[in-house]
């Protein structure tokens, strides 16, 4: 009997034939990185016969069984045969998702520092301003220890207790510097935004809270109390949050930046597609307008031709009438100067209304 262990490094068609007749395919699929259905397909492609369903039961009960010899391959392709056999013995490297691949790229980017320092060193100006604003809030006479410090509007959005303020500032400082190293930016307006490919993505750094009771001035009330657990939130269409747990929040920096970049790229592509669609819509509208204008002009020109044709017939009829009347008078030798002037005037009018002459009226 062929041992699986003996042929894991090199597998031939003959070896595979021995294997499928000595070991159930369901067991082989556990020994090798290939599903049993795929293993059956490979055997079919390699013209390797497989045992019938009751083959092994017959062996167990000492019954006679038939094992057909290994037939030759018809029109064998050595390269294809080798690839099929390698598929059985060589496990495929798992394909990374787009997020996983980008996460790996960022983690290996030498231009990006993802290590959050123990102390704030040469902070970004946005972080320096946020630090001063949080300290001012902490010194405020209305601040209560159980409440979160929240940076005011116009500053990096941080919502933490004083005990976690330094860590929050260090985290956000590292994130901002990493984003800028990746060619992105941070913008502070009515909120805080990571700007990826001109797409604004709202972000928040906060300390998580839970409902609890607070005694304040002899009164007990229910409120949301800080938990000490820090979290980073993407407050966008595609909401996402990372928080302290068995792994500290700082360990997620590469994944956070990767997610921000994917969101920015997605909406950037959406915007480009919308712009292309809008441009195409305008081009279609302009093309339709030109067709409509051309048709309207053709209709207008045709109407003009019809009108001119009608005028031409009317003018010719008028000339025929003038000539007839003049001949009648001449036949009676009764053409006065007034009549001659009238006929001359009538002919000038006819010429003026004749579209083939378009003589100016006097």
Features:
single chain, 362 residues, alpha+beta, 3 domains, seven-stranded mixed beta sheet, 10 helices, 7 strands, 14% strand, flat
Task: Describe the fold and architecture.
The chain is of the alpha+beta class and 362 residues long. The chain folds into three domains: 4-89, no CATH class; 101-273, no CATH class; 302-353. 51% of the residues lie in helices and 14% in strands. It contains ten helices and seven strands. It has helices spanning 13-22, 25-31, 36-45, 55-60, 78-89, 98-107, 125-139, 162-181, 253-331, 337-353; strands at residues 149-150, 158-160, 185-188, 192-196, 199-216, 219-234, 240-243. Strands 1, 2, 3, 4, 5, 6 and 7 form a seven-stranded mixed β-sheet that branches. A hairpin with a 5-residue loop joins strand 6 and strand 7. The model has no long low-confidence stretch (mean pLDDT 87).
Topology (elements, then pairings):
Layout: H1 13-22, H2 25-31, H3 36-45, H4 55-60, H5 78-89, H6 98-107, H7 125-139, E1 149-150, E2 158-160, H8 162-181, E3 185-188, E4 192-196, E5 199-216, E6 219-234, E7 240-243, H9 253-331, H10 337-353
Parallel strand pairs: 2-5
Antiparallel strand pairs: 1-2, 3-4, 4-5, 5-6, 6-7
